[in-house]
Amino acid sequence: MTVRVSAIGARRSVHGHSARALVAPKVTQLAYLSVIAAMLARVGMAVLPAFAAPLMNIAACVWILAFLAFLAAYAPMLVRPARASGS
Q1: pTM of the model
Q2: Are 4 and 37 in contact (CB under 8 A)?
Q3: What is the pLDDT of residue 6?
Q4: Residue 85 lies in a domain
Q5: Which of 7, 38, 42, 80 is the most exposed place for a label (fewest CB within 10 A)?
Q6: Domain containing residue 70
Q7: For residues 15 and 23, what is the distance between their CA atoms, to the nearest angstrom?
Q8: Tally of structural domains, the chain
Q9: Is 20:83 a contact under the CB 8 Å cutoff?
């Protein structure tokens, strides 16, 4: 929950301070879905302990995907100058 709220706040801050629309791009949606998939895999570990090792690997891989997607989407916005307001 905390990660989700922090990610939403970071996305809104980056878009707002760089004069971009407050709409989540597709890559951000992919990052959010990846975090949800990782959470489901971690819950699955408790429900299906016989599959704990593969589910942990799945959770790790989709977390990596989430962080890479977030980095791909927001690193360019954070290292470039902000757009002029209204453009």
Answers
A1: 0.67
A2: no
A3: 54
A4: no
A5: 80
A6: 25-78
A7: 8
A8: 1
A9: yes
